[in-house]
Predict the structure.
Amino acid sequence: MKGFDEMNKELKAVIFDLDGVITDTAEHHFIAWKQLAEELGIAIDRTFNEQLKGVSRMESLERILALGGQADRYTAEEKEALAYKKNEHYKQLIARMTPDDILPGIFDLLRELKRNHIKIGLASASKNAFTVIERLQIGEYFDTIVDAANVKHSKPHPEIFLTAAEQLSVHPSMCVGVEDAQAGVAAIKAAHMFAVGVGDREALKEADYIVETTKDLTYDAIVRAFYRE
């Protein structure tokens, strides 16, 4: 990404995670994974589900199988089939989503970013990101959407955020990344972007700026935090 001006600090883009930031599809993921796990004789709870946030579908499956002592029980093809089965159930759940499922404050934030000519990107570990954004009816706000199908490495690797920045033609140092998961914050920091965390302060302590809920995630607050750093 050579050729960008790194001399002057300037906010030019905000790149959002999807699950837990734009909308709460985490509950849909949990329901779908829990159903699959139960079919395999593995019990998962909400505490364990925290380990699945922000990571790829196959990595999530591997963690569930490891929990149940079944890591070596299935072939690669069988694991693909299991992941596909989970995703089919998940897609049934998200098909019911509407704009009412946008998290508090996010729609106003997207409008403010557009009004101030800040580019907007999405960096989601979900392969269903386009479907969710379509269901929420906010596709017009995003200048680029990068999902798990577009990258080789899952978070905490920075590839997905760097890809979004490249597609936006904005240097990473001029980007803010917004995440609700530890793996996501780690990916933002590895991309050398300003990291905003949404949620538990202890879990997201590596972030540069943290808010408890999306209601606190305003344009003015992001701008203040970015230039104060």
